[in-house]
Amino acid sequence: MIFKAKANKALDRMEDPRETLDYSYQRQLEMLTQVRRGVADVATSRKRLELQMNTLRKQQGKLDGQARQALGAGREDLAREALGRKATLQSQISDLEGQYHSLQADEEKLTVASQRLQARVEAFRMQKETIKATYTAAEAQSKIGEAVSGISEEMGDVGMAVQRAQDKTAQMQARAGAIDELMASGALEDVTGPPRDDIQAELDALRTGPDIERELQRLKGEIGGGQAREIESGAAADGGAAASDGAGHAAAAEQPQAGDGA
């Protein structure tokens, strides 16, 4: 029982209702084709009987004329023979007429059945397309929801692939940076470039040493000069303030003397 339930569940996941509907519609079209073929066969048989009856009626007319000619010639025996054959043909025609009317009725019944079946097939086709469109829309919405929420296996695989790519990129960047540092420090040599010359490296260092010293002295001179200018400007400011204070005291001393003279 459990196995059957699991099997039905697996089949339900694998089954596509759109394919099932298309298959059912195809089967109905085949049935409609068979009914139409049956109508065509019956109509063909009926037409064949009609042609046979027309042929027998023509023979009847011929025998009737021969009987008249025989009576005119005084050959009553020939006239009787012609009339006997005419009667035989009439019996055959009667049988064929019965079969003709039976086939005609069958043809009418099959034609009505074919029309009804065609209407049912057309109605099923419209219903089938509606169901398929609804199912397709629902399936698309479900896939979009799974993709957005990351539930689907495809999006999970994509996320893992992106994470692995980011990790690998970071690892390669770290490795490249470490190699650059080792090559800059001289721990590693560039095998693609010219061989390293230790003597030339020391000579280059000697040439760059004086340049560095001169630059250092220049910076010291700029910094020292700036400090000296700041000291001079501060001293000048202090001297001006002292002179201003002396002038103020002198003016204050002279004011009482002027009052006394008055």
Report what the structure shows.
The chain is an all-alpha fold and 262 residues long. The chain has two domains: 2-148, Helix Hairpins (Orthogonal Bundle), CATH 1.10.287; 202-255. It contains five helices and no strands.
Radius of gyration from CA coordinates: 61 Å
Shape: rod-shaped
At CATH level 2, the architecture of the largest domain is: Orthogonal Bundle
Counted up, domains total 2
Number of H/I helices: 5
What structural category arises from helix and sheet content?
A: mainly alpha
- Sketch the major β-sheet: none
CATH first level of the largest domain:
Mainly Alpha
Helices and strands, in N-to-C order?
HHHHH
Strands, total number: 0
Label this structure with key terms:
mainly alpha; Helix Hairpins; 2 domains; 5 helices
SSE blueprint and pairings:
Blueprint: H1 2-14, H2 17-72, H3 76-149, H4 153-185, H5 198-261
Helix pairs in contact: 2-3
Write a compact overview of the structure shown:
The protein is mostly helical. 92% of the residues lie in helices and 0% in strands. The chain has two domains: 2-148, Helix Hairpins, CATH 1.10.287; 202-255.
